[in-house]
User: Fold this.
Amino acid sequence: MLPAMIEVFDLVKTYEGATAVDGLSFTVNPGEVLGLVGPNGAGKTTTMRCITGILQPSAGAVRVAGLDLGLDPVGAKRNLAFVPDEPQLFDYLTIAEHLKFYGRVYNVPDAEAHGAALLKELELTGKEDALPGTLSRGMKQKVAIACGLLHRPRAVLFDEPLTGLDPVAIRRIKQTIKRLAAEGAAVIISSHLLGLVEEIATHLLLLQNGKKVLHGSLAEVRQSIPDLQDSGLEAIFLRATGYDAEPA
Amino acid sequence: MHPALRYLAYRQSAGGLKHRLSRLKNPRYFVPALLAIAYFWLSFGMPGLAPSRAGDDGHDTFERLRVFIGPGLGLMLAMGWAVATSRPAPAFTRPEASQLFVLPFTRRELVNYRLLRPQLIFLLIGGFAALGSLRSPQLNPLFAGAGGFLLMNLLSLNTMAAALASNRMKNAGWPKPLLYLPSLLLIGWVLGPLLYNYQVMEAGDEGWREWLLNLMQGGSAAWAHWPLQQLALMIGASDLAQFGRGAASVLVACAALWALCMLLVAPFEERALELAETTGRKIEAMRRGGAFAAAAGSLKKTRSTRLKLNATGPSWRAVFWQTLVAEWRIGMWKLAIGVAGILLALAVFGEHFTKSRGVAVFAIGLSAAMGSMLLMMGPRMMATGLHAELRRLPLWKGLPITGYSLLRGKVWAGALLVTPAALLMMTAAVIASLTLSKWNQAPVIMGVYAGLIPLVPVAAMMMIGLESAAVLMLPAWLSSTHSEPGFETIGRNLLSLMVRMVLGSLLAIIPGGLFAIAAAIGLALKLPAPGFAIGGVIAAVALAAEMEGLLLLVGRRFDEMDATPE
Assistant:
C-alpha cells in the first residue's frame, strides 16, 4: 500500500478560547477522494486552512507527502494545491500571466503547454489575455483550479468547488477531480452538496463541533448506520448530526 | 527573493498603471485627468518655472517648517507602532493572502515581496515631492524627489517592522498594554527633549523664531533628535553633501528596520488573512455601497435609534430620517461639532489666557476658513449623499418615491447636519470680532450675525442641493459610482466644485440683490443692524424658495433616469 499523502494527527485549533477543531485525526491516501462534510461551523474550513498552512494548529500536526507542515512548510506546500471557495485572483494579471506566475513558483518546465491543456480542459481557451475583472464567478473558479493543478500536485484540496458554476462547468470539474484521483493524487473536497460527495468521493469525513462524527469509505460509513444502509448520504448526514429528529 | 514574487510585483504594478492609462480613452476619465494635470501645473509647475520673483519667501517658509519635520517624522514612526497593536500583521491584499500563503514561499520572501510591491507608488509620490519643490527656487527637485521616495520606504519598513513585532509579542502572549511599549518609547524620544527644552516665551511676540529654534533644535533636542534632523535635512537639501548625509541616514535606518523585519518574522498568516479579509470586505462594501457601507461595516455594535418616524406620512420624511440616522452614526458630523466647539472655546477664552489679541485674529480667520470649508465640503462629507447613493439606484428606483422626495429628504437632512457646526464656527468668529471691535461697532456685528443665522442652513441646503443636482444631471461624470481611486478623482472633485460654483452664483443673484436692498435701506435709515438682519432673513427665504424649485426640476430628471447611470 502506498504511504498516506495527507496525514492529520490530533489536530486542535482554538480561537480565543473557542475550539474550532478538537483532536481530529485522519489520513488520505493517493487515489482517494475524501468528502469533508458537516453543518455550518463544524470546522471544515478551519481544517482545510490548517492543512494548507494558512492557520497554525494549536496542537497536533499535519504532514503532506511525508513532510511535516510545521517543520518544512515550503517542502510540504510544493506537493499541495488549494482551491478556495471564493476565488481571489490578482486584479491586474491576465489569465496567462496567472499561469506564468504559478509555473514560476513551482518551476514547472512545461508550464506553457500544460497550462494551455488545462485551459482547454476547463473551457477557458481564448480567455488567456482577459483580466479577472471581466470574468464571471464561474470562470474565475476555473482559473483558480487551473492555477492549482498546473504543477501536478500530489494533494489537492477543494473548498466548495462547484459554487457559482453552470451545469456544463460542474460536469467538467467533476471529471477533472476524478482524473486527478485516477492519476494518484489525494483529494479532499469540502462541500455542502452531498450529491457531489456521494458521486465522486471514495471516503467521507463528517465533522460536527470540530469533532469527527463519521469517517471511513462510503461503504463503511453506510454500514455504521445499519437501518440507513440503502439510504443516500443526506439521510446518513441528518441522522449522524442529530437533525433527523427535528420536525421538517 | 523568489523570482516569481518579483514577477508578480512587477506585473501587478505595470498592469495597474496600464489599466489606469488605458481608461483615459474614455472622456469621463480623460477630462477629469486633464483638469487634475492643469490644477497641478497651475499650482506647482508654473510658479516653479516662472522667473524668480522678488520677495519670494517659499524657501523661508520651508526653513521655518523644517524644524517640525524631524520631530513630525519621529511621531509618524511612533504612530506606525501604535497602529500596529490593533493590526498585528503585514498588510496583504485579499488575493495575496488567499493565494500566496498556500504557495511554497518562506515568510521572509513574503515580507520582502510586500515591501517591494508599492515601489511604483513611492516613485510617483517622489515625483509629486519633486513637483512640489518647484515652488521654491532654492530647493532641488531631484533631491526632493529622491528624498520623498526614500522616506516612503522608511515609513513602509517601519510599518512592517511594527506589524511583525506586534505579531511576535501577541504570539508570545504579551498583555495588550505592553504592546504599546515601543510606540511610547518612540513618543518619549520625540517629546522628551522638547519638554525638557520648554521655556515660557518672553512677553510679547518678538523673538518667537529664536524661541522656536531653541525649543525644537537646541539643548537636549540637538543631540537626541540628531538622527531625525538628518532625515529632515534630506527633503530640503540645497547641496549634494547635505542630501548625502540625509540619504545615508535614511539608508542606515532602512537597513536596520529591514534586519529587524527579517529577525522578527514569525507565523503571521492567520492574522494577515483576517486583516486582508476585513480590509477586503471594506473595499468591496465601498465599491458596492460607497462610504456608508464601508464605514457601517466597521461599526462593531450600535443601538437602534430612538429618533421618531411616523408609520404614515410623506415619503420624503422617511428619506430624511434614514439619512439623518445613517449620517449621525457613521458620518463626520460629531467631529465637525467637536472642532467647532474648540474654536468657540478659543474665541471665548483665548485672549483671557494668552493676553494676546493675535489669538482673536487667529480665531476669526480659522473659524471663517473652516466654516466656509464645511459649507463647501458638506456635500462630500455626506456618506449617503447622492454622489454615493447612485450605487443603489436600482433600489431607490424600485421604491414608490419620487425624485423630488428623495432629494428633499437628503438635502434637508444634510443641511440639518451641517448647520450646528457651521453656526458654532460663525459664533466663534463673531465673539472674537466683538473682542477686537469698539463698543459702537457691536450692534452692526450683531446685525450681520442675526442676518447670517437664517442664511447658514439655507446655504448648506444650497450646496448639498447643487451637488445632488450636478450628480443627477451628469451622473457618469460626477458620481463616485464607478470610480476607482486614481489621478482623475482630483479632477472629478474639481469639476464638481466648478459646477457648484457656477450654479451657486446664478442662484445667489436674486437673494443677494434682496439682501443688498434691505441693507441699503437700513443704512439709509441709519439703522444698519436691523437692515442686515432683515436682509438676511429675506435672502434666506428667497434662496429656500429657489432651492424648492430646483429640487422639483432635478427630481424630474431622477424620475426619468434609467436604473444604471451609465
In short: Chain A touches chain B through 30 residues (CB under 8 Å). Strands of chain A lie at 6-15, 18-28, 33-37, 59-64, 67-68, 80-83, 155-159, 186-190, 203-208, 211-217.
